[in-house]
Amino acid sequence: MSISVNKEWLSQVREEIIEPGRRIIDPHHHFFVENPEYPHYTLADLVADTSGHGVEQTVYLQCWEGHRKTGPEHMMPVGETEWVDGIAAEARKNPKAVQIGAIMGTGELRGSEAEVREFLEAHVAASKLFRGIRQIAAWDTYPDILSMHGVTNATLFDEPAFRRGFKILDAMGLVFDAYHYYHQIPCLTRLARDFPGTNIVLDHLGTPLGVGPYAGREEEIFTIWKRDLTELARCSNVVIKLGGLAMPWNGFGFEKQPRPPTSDELVARQNRYYQFAIQTFGPERCMFESNFPVDKCALSYDVLWNAFKKIAANYSEAEKDAMFRGTAARVYRVAPRA
Predict the structure, then answer these.
(1) What CATH number is associated with residue 249?
(2) Is 1 contained in some domain?
């Protein structure tokens, strides 16, 4: 399933920025320049999108861009960290605009111990902004729901080879981002229990599904999602990203409407997911994320962050600061801007 952005369609909904002075770290975005399945997205696009809400810094998340074209296969993903480090250097030329505060790369943890150690050490050497990796585990039997290359079942995190590599990541003190679907949450819970010293970040609220065989089952899936998220939250080493629910496979269908949703409409449709996650993990283990430009298929950056600010309206200032900035700064070790 490819993702596209229609800027003219998005321009139908414009909103005044809520709390324009709030400090924000966006802990999840991508750059796309080669992958035709996703919208082209560069530093200039990120600067334009983040300017309204005055986002200070971001965390780049791997998306298979910039990989090396030659050399050993297990080392090719190091090229992404090298590439984004160069973009971060370019961003620093405009210190008043958004800065890249951390980089999450990728790699195959199921390789040999020597290979895993080599590519992780190379990532670390490639950029002082490198913080860890995301090896995506998303898998489903339905063909229109994206399953990751090399993932053949729902239990990647249980595989002995994966855990052998994860042990090296753990020993190096690196962060692990987890992206998978809601029915795979128990697998992440087992991993988190067995590696209690590793900082693990659950992306996209655990990705409840709503298309194909999951369409029309929102209440049933919401119940399962709540049960499994509650169990995962018992693992104190896990934090959760609040966002990513505008992707087509979530099934809300915003991208198919005559016009994009307003922030009020987004809150009305999705608020219960956010509130449950915040109340279950606690604000100090939550961080709002844009997942841009993927979620840009459904709404603009300004509208999305207005919705986040409305969702957080009833929390204390300290709790808001944790969700909009503090948790991301702590987990990804994002240094304060000068």
Answers:
(1) 3.20.20.140
(2) no
251 belongs to a structural domain: yes
Cα 104 from Cα 81, distance rounded (Å): 8
Query: What is the per-residue DSSP string for 109-126?
Result: TTS-HHHHHHHHHHHHHH
Q: What are phi and psi of 58, to 5 degrees?
A: -135, 170
106: domain range?
7-331
| Structural domain count, the chain | 1
Q: Does the residue 338 lie in any domain? A: no
Residues 65/33, Cβ–Cβ less than 8 Å: yes
- What are 126's two structure tokens? 């490639």
- In-domain check, residue 113: yes
Q: What pLDDT, in 10s, does the model give residues 70-113?
A: 999 999 999 999 999 999 999 999 999 999 999 999 999 999 99
The model's pTM is 0.97
Nearest CA to 290 out of 326, 251, 328, 321 is that of 328
The Cα 222–Cα 276 span in angstroms is 10
Q: Are 210 and 250 in contact (CB under 8 A)?
A: yes
Judged by phi (left if over 0) then psi (alpha if -120 to 50, else beta), residue 300 lies in beta
pLDDT tens, position by position, 49-65: 999 999 999 999 999 99
